[in-house]
């Protein structure tokens, strides 16, 4: 059964950095569109960044220039490097996979359990 497992979350101060990692098992990331989503308390799950089958990346406006998504096909991992973190980045971050590219979370079939990112001011 396909599984995604996130790691790397934690507590960081305003302006700090974190690197999230997603390891896939029984799922070959090069065959999927991979995404990072986040969900803050009381809010809907939102797309943060994706890397498509061909390697094209997409970022939501609020993280452009601060976050970088990357994949390591050999290791079957997808990372999210986050710089200049802000309190509004506080959320649970999820890794997800889809056979097609979607902006909405409902289009993704496989999800990890999530990792908490908290940015203090």
List the helices and strands and how they pair.
Elements (H helix, E strand, L loop, with lengths): L2 E5 L2 E4 L4 E8 L7 E7 L6 E6 L5 E3 L7 E6 L4 E6 L8 E8 L11 E2 L3 E6 L1
Parallel strand pairs: 2-11
Antiparallel strand pairs: 1-3, 3-8, 4-5, 4-9, 5-6, 7-8, 9-10, 9-11
Report on the architecture of this protein.
With 121 residues, this protein is mainly β. Helices cover 0% and strands 50% of the residues. The protein has no helices and 11 strands. The strands form 2 sheets. Strands 2, 4, 5, 6, 9, 10 and 11 form a 7-stranded mixed β-sheet that branches. A 4-stranded antiparallel β-sheet has the order 1-3-8-7, with no helix packed on it. The radius of gyration is 13 Å and the shape is globular. The protein starts with a strand and ends with a strand. The relative contact order is 0.32. The mean pLDDT is 96.
Radius of gyration: 13 Å
On the 0-100 scale, what is the average pLDDT? 96
Instruction: Please state the structural category.
Output: mainly beta
End-to-end gap: 40 Å
Structural shape: globular
Order of helices and strands: EEEEEEEEEEE
Number of helices: 0
Unreliable stretches: none
Major pleated sheet: 7 strands, mixed
Strand content: over 45%
Total count of strands: 11
Estimated helix fraction: under 10%
